[in-house]
Amino acid sequence: ATTIHFDDNAKLILWEDMYNNLAELKGIIKEKVNDKIKDPKSKIVKSNLLFFDKRNYKGNPWTSINGIMLIGMISFWGYYIVTHPAKQNILILIPLFMCLFFYLFFGIQMNYFTIDAENLIIKNHFFPWKNKLYNLNDISEFVIESPYRRSNSLRIITKEFRSKLFGAGSLRDKHWREFRDDMIKLGIPVRADTSIG
Q: In this structure, are 167 and 186 located in the same domain?
């Protein structure tokens, strides 16, 4: 969320999820009142980048709650297929579609992060073809948050105020703390809107 404090102590809160054009709105506000903005600015410390080459922030996807739920669902439907032979070939598709649904549902929350050179790369345990690249110099700040009934996630906010949320279900609190501490050493502000210890 973005909070605007006025001179009369009133404040206006703009929630990320409520506005489709919040990036443009923040850009306009920055143009008008740039000298009064008190957000910490990211400033990459180039000398520290040498220590972060090929650094991964990921946990074990199979021991996370998402991995356990996925294994449980696939095991249940696999057992069901074996013990209840389909009278018609089309009926076997129902459990297969359920397995695919759960694979996709839990898979989108299984991202992990890699620092390579001056880039943050978002990869996925279950979708190996997924690679999203952000230049660290383009990132304004990180927010670690816990969306309702989903895995802890990393929100990346760019200097153009664009925001993207990546669920990271395999990361434990120790991985989040390591990520937070490392990004602060690099000079990028990190807010934790959830408890990571």
A: yes
> Is residue 115 located within the same domain as residue 181?
yes
Question: Three-state SS string across 96-143, please?
Answer: HHHHHHHHHHHHCCEEEEEEECCEEEEEECCCCCCEEEEEHHHEEEEE
Structure tokens at 94: 């129902």
Q: Is residue 197 part of a domain?
A: no
Asked if pLDDT for residue 112 goes beyond 90, the answer is yes
Distances (CA, A) of 76 to 60, 73, 93, 107: 22, 5, 15, 18
Count of CB atoms within 10 A of residue 147's CB? 15
Give the model's pLDDT for residue 67: 93
Look up residue 34 and give its DSSP letter: G
Indicate whether 95 and 178 sit together in one domain. Answer: no
Residues 181 and 164 in one domain: yes
Distance of CA 28 to the CA centre of its chain: 26
Range with the lowest mean pLDDT among 10-19, 73-82, 98-107, 184-193? 10-19
pTM of the predicted structure, to 2 decimals: 0.80
- Segment 61-79 shows an average pLDDT of 92
Q: What total of structural domains would you count in the chain?
A: 3
Q: Are residues 151 and 54 in the same domain?
A: yes
